[in-house]
Amino acid sequence: MTSRKLSRRQFLSIAATASAATALAACTSQASAPTEAPKAEAPKAEPTATPKQEAPTEAPKAEAPSTERKPVEFLGWPGDTTTPEEKDKFEAEFPEYELKYVAQQEGVQLLALIAAGTAPDAARVESNVYQSFAKDGALMDLTDHLRGDPVLGKPDYFIEPQETQRCAVNGKWYGIGSCWVAPHLYYNADIFAEEGIEPPSNDPEKAWDWPYFLDVARKLTIDTNKKHPGEQGFDINSVERYGIDWPTWWIPMHAAIQSNEGAWIDPESGKIVLDTPQATEAMQNIADLNLVHQVKPTSAAMEGLGMTNTQMLETKKLAMAVDGSWALAWMYQMKGKLGTAVLPKMKRPATDMQAHLHVVVSGAKNPEGGWATVKFLSEDWFQEKYLMSGLWLPSHTSLMTPEAIKRWCVGPVHPEGYELIVTQYAPKYGHFLTMPIGYQKAADTVLTPSMDKIWTGEATAAEAMKVVPEANQVMADEANR
Questions:
Q1: 265 vs 45, higher pLDDT
Q2: Do the beta carbons of residue 119 and residue 152 sit within 8 Å?
Q3: In which band, very low, low, confident or very high, does the pLDDT at 81 lie, cut at 50, 70 and 90?
Q4: Which helix (DSSP H) or strand (DSSP E) does residue 287 occupy?
């Protein structure tokens, strides 16, 4: 299962373009409380006799206050650095620190840097290894810092309960989420207009049910002879336009499983539960989009076309695509009219919510500078930059108010009605996938190879997920090592 990776340079370039189109709201830093001034000594009594006058000596020169900043290192995206705007704003807000961006080398994990004695002060950590890193002692406990912060410590600052679900490990916070992202539908609105079909909605209360979604996907799938799947003479090897592309990596698959009232990880036991009927049925539904209904391109077909889903939408070779909210950052530039919508529902509206976290590294040379960095990256100003670009969804309630929505959730990036995905769909129907200690090893060695057989038809979902007990044993072994 693969996903499209976005380099931070693309990330920042897109954000800069959007920032030029819409004014960013300025945010002010919290002034530190003044320390108590030292008490002055009482003046000495005047002598009764006039002393002998001596030549005055030159007063000692006061030493100039030190302007040297203490470096704070942040481990971020490979091959990039902070923007001048970000660096300047951080150092204006925290004048005692100099922000230094450390580009993560491909394949070099944070734990390796810690072992080598070259750990940064703060870092970005992916959600799939966050709990494992906390268990291994790689991350500093930020609970007291967070509680004591007048802004971040407010009970309604973050969207809940999802923020606590991803950040808290045994009741302690070792990081703060960067934002949220969530998969949803993208579609070429011109195709729907030409076919006379009403497009799907951004309103989760109007989510298509699964049978209706399949019917529309069949109507929108045509071969070179204008035949639809299920019709006599339809040729799957000469499809002119597919109805839907639904990727099979974990984020869009988690959304499907939640929509079928299933779960990936049981929240009570912390075990993988992909072998339940709800989970296997959802996975089979996605596999059957290609294997049975013939409305979804295979990986081989996509590779043969040599096109991304954005290019396929633009050239009308694809009517609808499931992708992350981050894809809006480039999809909005496609020719033709782009539409967005909530995912079709199997039993209930649902989507996945994910994003990387920002952490302070355990044993950092400058832990307070590391906390200052995490705090800075958790401010509205920083998050709003990337909301405007289409890359992120908010994790702060303050960026979901009507006033904030009018600032950043606007054209040309955000289509009309997209605010419903931001304020209704993601926070009310979004599910965070907690990945317990040892999960990544279980996924790499057991789950993913078996799940791949589902998409090719080598095994049904129920057959493939018989490996779940083995995967849970791998997790247990990792947790107990």
A1: 265
A2: no
A3: low
A4: helix 277-291
Residues 213, 311, 341: CA angle, nearest 5 degrees = 35
Show Cβ contacts of residue 388 under 8 Å, excluding neighbours closer than 6 positions. Answer: 15, 18, 19, 21, 22, 24, 408, 413
Residue 231 CB partners (closer than 8 Å, separation 6+): none
Q: CATH for 183-353+433-480, among 1.10.260.40, 3.40.50.20, 3.40.630.10, 3.40.190.10? A: 3.40.190.10
The pLDDT mean for the chain works out to 87
Strand ranges (E), 2-83: 70-76
CA angle, residues 258, 303, 240, in degrees to nearest 5? 85
Q: What are phi and psi of 32, to 5 degrees?
A: -75, 150
- What is the token pair recorded at 202? 């951004």
Q: Which fold has domain 69-181+355-399?
A: D-Maltodextrin-Binding Protein; domain 2 (3.40.190)
DSSP class of residue 334 equals S
Expressed in angstroms, the distance from the first to the final Cα of the chain is 28
Characterize the bridge pairing of strands 172-173 and 318-324: unpaired
Scanning 105-177, the segments in alpha helix (DSSP H) are: 110-115, 127-135, 143-148, 162-167
Q: Give the C-alpha separation, 403 to 480, whole Å.
A: 49
pLDDT at residue 79, as a whole number: 63
Segment 217-245 shows an average pLDDT of: 97
Residues in Cβ contact with 179 at an 8 Å cutoff, skipping those fewer than 6 apart: 355, 383, 386, 387, 392, 393, 394, 395
Q: Of 75, 93, 150, which Cα lies nearest the Cα of 359?
A: 75
**Each residue's pLDDT tens digit, 352-409:** 999 999 999 998 999 999 999 999 999 999 999 999 999 999 999 999 999 999 999 9
pLDDT at 209 over 60: yes
Contacts of residues 59-63 at CB distance under 8 Å and 24 or more positions apart, as own/partner, are none
* Both tokens assigned to 352: 């996945």
Pairing of strands 318-324, 357-360: unpaired
Structure confidence at residue 42 as a pLDDT band (50, 70, 90): very low
